[in-house]
Design a protein that fits this description.
With 413 residues, the protein is an all-beta fold. It is 1% helix and 44% strand.
Length: 413
């Protein structure tokens, strides 16, 4: 059982404004991890309304995937904060100590800590790597994914916000690839399958010349997407290893209202594919639709958000410090605006894998009305709110200061 310390800061003026229509949440990933809640106005602008301790530890500015002392995107992951479909609870990872926190969500969006429990994955070195969550309401099972295995996926049962570790763990490794790095886990909308994207086939290292030594998943062996059948009790069956559509599958998002159609973002390819998963768990992929990569490769296209009407997709380009947009027409992806908004400069001290100076943009979120897009730029210490334009452009309307380098995860309602 972890010791729990709660600290709360509330802005009563912002919290009581009649113009507030929802909330946006991020995690600081600080050594003393916190959730920051922003009250969202009808015009898309934000007001910080609450900071509350998770009772767990983040990694701070340390990036355990690479061993860098200070770098954005600590865990190379997606989905570190999620909200239950009934909006009753918020769950977050604490990557520093490999724990998960649950919060009760109040009527005004305010959070109250309900529980914090270790995932069961030991921490080796300076930080753990718990980073991606998905929740199955039908079995009240919470799944958590870690960067480092072999026990990549652990599970909790959830009862009124209380977390109880479930027996067993699951790996995304194969017989020949024993140190793979997944990025995200998602459930198919019908809850029948859990899907995991794989970024690297082994832990990153450095070559003698100082350049990164990367074993990019799904470049040669088409096994970068792992499909687990979900049993009636929420436990997982034996995995199927299949084609993720291109090099370094990173982020999966299902089209709104679809049972079988999803988009997969490819960090090494600099593009998106549209995939379909059938009732048997078999996946088929469209050709990759790539952004302009003239500035350098890999672009590290690593996060996506889809508008509620499934007409626009916004892709975060980590290596270029900006966002590009796609459109979906006649069931196919096309580039809409690349970039969708000007690049946001960082402090000049961080370079992405393409060796370009980057502000390290990571997680994003789109408001339920489809009007506003929110993007983290941790190396610039900014979260920026944009108005979504019909042609795929983004117009900046608000900026919030966030902690340096460490923040990750974004969700709202």
């Amino acid at each position: 059982m972890l010791a729990v310390t709660i600290s709360v800061w509330v802005n009563p003026v912002g919290a009581q404004s009649k113009n507030k229509t929802g909330s946006v949440y991020i995690q600081t990933n600080g050594i003393g991890n916190e959730i920051i809640r922003y009250a969202r106005e009808s015009n898309g602008k934000l007001t910080e309304a609450q900071r509350i301790s998770t009772g767990g530890a983040g990694s701070g500015t340390f990036k355990p995937i690479t061993g860098q002392e200070s770098a954005p995107n600590a865990f190379e992951g997606v989905g570190s904060i999620i909200i239950t479909p009934d909006r009753q609870y918020l769950f977050t990872t604490n990557g520093g100590d490999n724990s998960v926190s649950s919060f009760k969500i109040g009527a005004d969006g305010g959070l109250t800590l309900a529980d914090v429990q270790p995932t069961g994955q030991p921490v080796s070195g300076k930080s753990g790597t718990a980073k991606s969550l998905v929740y199955a309401p039908n079995t009240q099972t919470l799944y958590v994914c870690h960067s480092f295995g072999p026990d990549h996926i652990r599970m909790f049962s959830v009862n009124n916000g209380k977390l109880t570790t479930k027996k067993g763990s699951h790996t995304v490794n194969t017989e020949s690839k024993t140190d793979r790095i997944p990025t995200q886990i998602v459930l198919t909308p019908d809850g029948k399958y859990l899907m995991a994207d794989i970024l690297f086939d082994k832990r990153p290292g450095m070559k003698p010349d100082g350049t990164p030594d990367l074993a990019v998943a799904n470049m040669t062996d088409k096994d970068g997407l792992v499909i687990f059948p979900v049993k009636a009790d929420g436990s997982l069956g034996a995995p199927r290893f299949t084609d993720g559509g291109g090099g370094a599958p990173f982020v999966i998002a299902f089209l709104n209202g679809s049972r079988d159609t999803f988009i997969n973002g490819l960090a090494a390819e600099g593009g998106l594919v549209m995939g379909k998963i059938d009732a048997s768990g078999k996946v088929t992929n469209s050709p990759v639709v790539k952004i302009n990569q003239g500035k350098g490769m890999p672009t590290e296209l690593c996060w996506i958000s889809i508008t509620p009407d499934n007409k626009q997709v916004f892709a975060t380009i980590f290596g270029y410090s900006y966002v590009s947009s796609y459109k979906i027409e006649n069931g196919a992806l096309q580039i809409a605006k690349d970039p969708a908004a000007p690049a946001i400069p960082g402090d000049g001290n961080f370079k992405a894998l393409d060796m370009l100076v980057s502000s390290g943009p990571n997680d994003s979120w789109i408001s339920p009305d489809g009007k506003y897009y929110y993007q983290l730029y941790p190396n610039a210490s900014k979260m920026i709110a944009y108005k979504i334009e019909s042609g795929g452009g983004l117009k900046e309307i608000d900026t919030q200061k966030i902690p340096y380098n460490s923040p990750q995860g974004m969700v709202g309602f």
